[in-house]
Specification:
This protein is of the alpha+beta class and 74 residues long. The protein is built from two helices and two strands. The protein has helices spanning 19-22, 27-47, and strands at residues 7-10, 15-18.
Length: 74
């Protein structure tokens, strides 16, 4: 049976419906989109020759504050 582009079979209701109006997403399109995005990210990582990172600086610990203000001691 030849169906219009947006029409498909709803297995829940056993009817042919407009898939967009019924809120049904075609899993084949979702899978293809996910796969295309994954390949895009993987190819970008493979073609990257260097990564920019921040080199940690070697800072010394802060000095202890003076022990002033201790009343009653000489």
């Amino acid at each position: 049976k030849k169906l219009p582009e947006a029409e498909g079979f709803d297995a829940l209701t056993n009817e042919y419906v407009d898939m967009f109006k019924a809120g049904i997403v075609d899993p084949a399109k979702v899978t293809r989109s996910v796969l295309e995005n994954a390949v895009s990210v993987a190819s970008m990582l493979l073609t990257t020759e260097a990564a920019v990172v921040e080199i940690p600086s070697k800072e010394s610990a802060p000095a202890m504050p003076p022990m002033g203000g201790m009343g009653g001691m000489m």
